[in-house]
Amino acid sequence: MAPARTRARRMCFDRILPLEPQRAQRTLTDAAGRARGLAPRKSKWVNGSEIKIRFLEGTQQQIDMVKQIAPEWTQYANLSFAFTDDPSAQIRVSFDANDGAWSYIGTDNMSIPKNVATLNLGWQDEGVILHEFGHMIGLAHEHSSPMGGIVWNEEEVIRDLQGPPNFWDIPTIRFNVFQKYSVDQIFGTQFDPDSIMLYAFPDDWTKNMGATHENQQLSTMDKDFVRSSIMYPGAASPNDKAVKLEIGKSVSATLGTHDEEDLYRFEVPQRGRFVIETTGSTDVVIALFGPDDPTRLIARDDDGGAGVNARIVALLDQGAYFVQVRHYWPDGTGAYGISARSA
Questions:
Q1: What does each C-alpha distance from 342 to 109, 288, 303 come to in angstroms?
Q2: CATH 3.40.390.10 segments of the chain
């Protein structure tokens, strides 16, 4: 008699912002042409950020379990977690057993109303907590990797996930399981079958690779990826690594290596409208954070300036602001200028 197969009974929802499924996307490749953990580039926190986490509910046992397990990510990623009752916390954790397990990805959390959960743990064990907090720091599902090469047996997947405990409709299944990052800018490594971001699938869910196994711990590749130069390297705070940008003056710089990100800091002396923009022929993307908080995303822009330059116009309160600059293309390099001025 053939052994009974193991069902993927519990799966994580992909929590996305409105319009994300329709947003144009591109795939990241390395020098050998291979897509390179998996992280949407737009959702990465500023390196060195402290992320505040508040519990909206939960028993003391549930809360203590999260506090014990989730910070394992910070042993490798240059981030810190602060568990707090601060109502302005970027991350709000709930334990609704009727709502599955899910989390928004990285800085997408900043677009969610402050009284609403951004991460739910409908069930708790080490693997689930590490998986959802992996989403929280900016990682996507491993099975969504364009390098996975998974050919799904769609009829079997749909049949299983339409039943308990997920009860997903077909559009939900197609988005959470079948859709890959085929056109998005992503950070990534080669497909990792041991990643905490990969779920256990039964053999007959795929036509070409057999079952995947359940992962309860961070893989070697998970650890190496989040502490790599393209994610959260080193141990410097944003204040330590940011280059000073004086209001009204331009700074010239160069993105000299693939996946390089530059960080700038400027002070707004009093409330007013400001323009942050780049110059030159290098195709850059900028993101603005603040005030006094490198995790609070204010705006992001690609080609809002002249040519391929980025430009943000915003009404800013007094305080310190951070500007993150990267090339639009993962393998792009080049010189650029950046300035911040009152409008």
A1: 29, 15, 20
A2: 12-226
One-letter identity of residue 291: P
Burial-class residue 31 by CB neighbours within 10 Å (0-12, 13-18, 19+): exposed
What mean pLDDT value characterizes the chain? 81
Highest mean pLDDT among 7-21, 101-115, 143-157, 176-190: 101-115
Encode pLDDT of 63-108 as tens digits.
Answer: 999 999 999 999 999 999 999 999 999 999 999 988 888 898 899 8
* CA–CA dist 146, 190 (Å, integer): 9
Average pLDDT over residues 275-281: 97
Rg over CA atoms, the chain: 21
> What number of other Cβ atoms are within 10 A of residue 269's Cβ?
9
Distance in angstroms (rounded) separating the CA atoms of residues 4 and 197:
25
Report the distance separating Cα 205 and Cα 151, nearest Å: 9
Q: Are 50 and 80 in contact (CB under 8 A)?
A: yes
CATH architecture of 238-342: Sandwich (2.60)
- Beta bridge partner(s), residue 340: 276
SS3 at position 259: coil
- Euclidean distance between CA atoms 41 and 38, whole angstroms: 9
Asked if residue 267 lies in contact with residue 247, where contact means CB atoms within 8 angstroms, the answer is yes
Tens digits of residue pLDDT in 28-73:
333 333 333 555 667 889 899 999 999 999 999 999 999 999 999 9
- CATH 2.60.120.380 placement within the chain: 238-342
CB 42 within 8 A of CB 111: no
Spatial distance between the Cα atoms of 90 and 272, rounded to a whole number of angstroms:
25
CB 275 within 8 A of CB 311: yes
Selected from 3.20.20.100, 3.30.2350.10, 3.40.390.10, 3.90.950.10, the CATH number assigned to the domain covering 12-226 reads: 3.40.390.10
3-state secondary structure of 127: helix
First to last CA, the chain: 75
